[in-house]
């Protein structure tokens, strides 16, 4: 009997992945039951109401667990390792992490604006992550390295105005719906292949996949965000510039306003260079993303609508608890 446990099922990415899995018409998926770990009975109730014709099994916990807690992911892997028996399929652990793990620190260390990582060489990426984290520990990266290393050791198959602080920071992007499709394809490969994906899907120290579609600079993100805000009438306000404007600000200001004062996260996220070339999902899984530039621009409008429906600012501190 196949069992799937999904954590973060009420989050932006996790919720989209769950929706794609539950609504999949693929024979290997459509009859599965999903076990979900959520943070409250209220969240569990919303999921059951949303999927009344196929309600997932839920368990609630009041303790938030962001991706910055290495011991949390290790506990999952150790638990899966206890299930390994000669007559049972090898368990898989699919873990999502962030591109800042590969970012340079251009304001306080050496900048590498032209460096690009290719997921076709997962082991080289792992070795960089491992050595970089030993030299300059970064909690989110520590978590990812722990997942990849422990997975291999245990036999688990793992896997108002705009602002800028420099002119070269970048992100590679993918629409969340296309990202969710990657998870569905991974689950299908594990369930449908005779080898259960072992030796086919990259795992352990090679288990890295970049579902990247486009590349954008932080300045472009700010420009497009301002376009959407002015277009929606959210800006200008009485206390803000009357024209679209991007200001050069200090790293501490960005960290304090958006990232709970975490300078290392702010530098990697807002100032860092993190170019990623994704080939594995297309080559091995047949991933064919369909949400392109028009959908990318629409995402700004959608985000503004969501933010307008919320009370209070959205920061790292508020997001971690949601």
UniProtKB/TrEMBL annotation:
InterPro entries: NAD(P)-bd_dom_sf (IPR036291). This is NAD-dependent epimerase/dehydratase domain-containing protein. It comes from Aspergillus novoparasiticus.
